[in-house]
Structure formats: structure tokens, C-alpha cells
Amino acid sequence: MGSKEIEDSLERLDKLTQEEARMASVEQLKMAHNVDEKVMGVDDRVRGVERQVEDVHGDVRDVGNKVQHVEDRVQDVGNKIQHVEDKVEDFREDLSSVERRARKNARNIEKDISSEARRVERRIRNLFR
Q1: 1-31 burial, b for 16+ CB within 10 Å, e for fewer?
Q2: Residues 23-37: pLDDT tens digits?
């Protein structure tokens, strides 16, 4: 072969190589674009999951606040029950005091009645003498 033919062959080979390199670059760009789209899709899904997690976290916080409110109300009820128990205890103490005075008064009345009965009995005996 002549040098002209070799040069032409090399030139065609160079053009083919450059064309092949361009085609490979285009394929790489397509693949990169596809990867980008997939990453963006995954990224969007991750953001969606993050939003859902934030929503759940907000719901959990709301439930926590409601539970705290219930605990506060239960504590209030407990305090009121304690207050009622204290009042009942005070009432029992007052009742015990009233019972003691009533027993004492009853004994005094009994003594007075016994005394009066003895006086009446003496008078009756004196009448029949």
C-alpha cells in the first residue's frame, strides 16, 4: 500500500476513533442523566419520608401533650380526693369529740338522775314514816 492510502486509512481511523469517543461520551451523559434522575427521585422520596417522619413526630408530641394534660388532671383529682380525705378525718375527729362530750354529759345526767332518784326515794320513805 502506498503512503497516501495509509494516511487516508489512519485519518479515517482517527475520525472513527473520535466518533466512537463522542458516542461513548453521549452514552456516558445519558447514563449520568439517568442516574441523576434516579438520585433525584430517591431524593424526593427521602424528602417525602422525612416529611412523614416529621408529621409522626408532631403527632407523637401532640399525644405526649395530651397525656401530660391527663396526668395533670389525674393529679388534680388526686389532690381533691386527698382534700376530701382530710375533711373526712377532721369530721371523724369532730365526731369523736362530740361522742366523748355526749358520753360525759350522759354520765353527768345519769348521776344527776340517780341523785334526784335517791332524793325522791328518801322523801317517799320520809312520807311513809
Answers
A1: eeeeeeeeeeeeeeeeeeeeeeeeeeeeeee
A2: 998 888 888 877 777
